[in-house]
Specification:
The protein is an all-alpha fold. It contains six helices and no strands. The termini are far apart.
């Protein structure tokens, strides 16, 4: 049987994500000169977006689990604790990508753009992955349904913007 209420709820959040994603395409267009200067940069947009989304999704899962198990929840304590996980993860991923890309492409500027972007966007995923589910929970919305699509598109926007701004400083 169709559950029209659940379909409606999911479609609302996914539609918001669709609209915001279309806006991301417009932002990428603003950096056309940067991408044209080094076309290989475009190949790394999915990598930066994926890695930050993956960390954000982990964060969403962790905070939603925590929210379900607690009547009183302190977002500040949660973020502080997670900061000591996400920052080392971001730095290790950045270092690994820098080494691999330098070895493969022999281009330290490219490796720097990608690795710095990875570190920065992974760090920001701590906020999008934790703050949005927490906000929906506080507003008595289901964070499992609402935060996924919205956090993903916001994180995608942030990741692409971070990547292109950093790329513009190098090229």
């Amino acid at each position: 049987m169709f559950n029209f209420k659940e379909i409606k709820t999911r479609l609302i959040w996914l539609s918001v994500g669709l609209g915001l994603s279309i806006g991301i395409a417009g932002i990428i267009g603003q950096f056309e000169d940067t991408l044209r200067a080094n076309i290989v940069l475009a190949a790394f947009i999915p990598l930066v977006v994926y890695m930050s989304d993956a960390v954000g999704t982990q964060m969403e899962s962790i905070i939603i689990r925590e929210l379900q198990n607690k009547q009183r929840f302190h977002i500040g304590r949660f973020l502080h604790k997670q900061l000591f996980v996400v920052v080392p993860v971001a730095l290790v991923i950045a270092a690994l990508s820098f080494g691999a890309l330098t070895a493969i492409y022999r281009d330290t500027d490219l490796a720097s753009v990608v690795s710095i972007s990875l570190a920065a966007s992974i760090f920001t995923s701590l906020l999008t992955g934790a703050i949005l589910p927490y906000w929906f929970w506080r507003e008595h919305e289901d964070p499992a349904e609402a935060s996924g699509p919205i956090a993903t598109v916001i994180q995608d926007f942030i990741s692409v913007l971070v990547f292109l701004v950093i790329a513009r400083t190098f090229y």
